[in-house]
Amino acid sequence: MEKVLISTRDLSKIYHMGEVSVEALRDATLDIYEGEFVVILGPSGSGKSTLLNIIGGMDTPTHGKVFFRGQELGDLDDNGLTRYRRENIGFIFQFYNLLPNLTARENVELVTDMSSDPLDVMEVLDKVGLKERADHFPSQLSGGEQQRVAVARAVAKNPEVLLCDEPTGALDNITGRVVLKVLKEINRSLGKTVLVITHNAAIAEMANRVLYLSNGRIASIRTIENPIDPERIEW
User: Fold this and answer.
1) Strands 20-33, 71-72: parallel, antiparallel or unpaired by DSSP?
2) pTM of the prediction?
3) Between vectors from CA 229 to CA 41 and to CA 211, what angle results, nearest 5°?
4) Could you read off the pLDDT of 82-99 as tens digits, one per residue?
5) Which of 9, 68, 80, 230 is least enclosed, having the fewest CB within 10 Å?
6) What three-state secondary structure class fits 63?
7) Backbone phi, then psi, for 97, in 5-degree steps?
8) In this predicted model, what pLDDT tens digit does every residue of 117-176 receive, in sequence order?
9) Please, are residues 161 and 129 in contact by the beta-carbon 8 Å criterion?
10) Where are the domains of the chain?
11) 48, 211 Cβ separation under 8 angstroms
């Protein structure tokens, strides 16, 4: 039986900008299971990043609740939320956010120094295909290689969940497929739960489930019976 890892119940988020209120997320209820690869699909402004940030403990809902293994995040204080993010969540963003004066290996080692149960840095770099580039600086790496370092950095602290915000948004199609293949392999081989948000509908076909967001609401959830290999994605 599949185990629920993350649950959201009636999540809403309202941002206030002066006299204007924007409802970025509306009554979002869903369950994410251990080891799933989930794509959250929708156009800009649909609430994808808001949902991801709340799940990741970087933002709080205006209404509703988020649970991680039955623990409500709203019950955690600041230290508890920091511990939740540090121990359970790996973040991967559109832009790589690597430190330019550190090598690939050193960029990954930064997070392992803060982890209670980190993975071996060189083994993780090998898994993303960059073992031979471990001592190169970001300026000596291509965009796709830098993003794979960012993936390795997120994975190396050994979190249960990878939250990926448009991880191929700054990459060309060919390089993007390479990064998606790495994410899928991490999902398969290490059993990590992966959530990818994107506006690119083609990416959805590699997922176990696809969550469609529109105007801050979950419009539908679709199960993919036979997810395709990332190399077959066409966009």
Assistant:
1) unpaired
2) 0.92
3) 20
4) 999 999 999 998 888 899
5) 80
6) strand
7) 55, 40
8) 899 999 999 999 999 999 999 999 999 999 999 999 999 999 999 999 999 887 888 889
9) no
10) 4-232
11) no
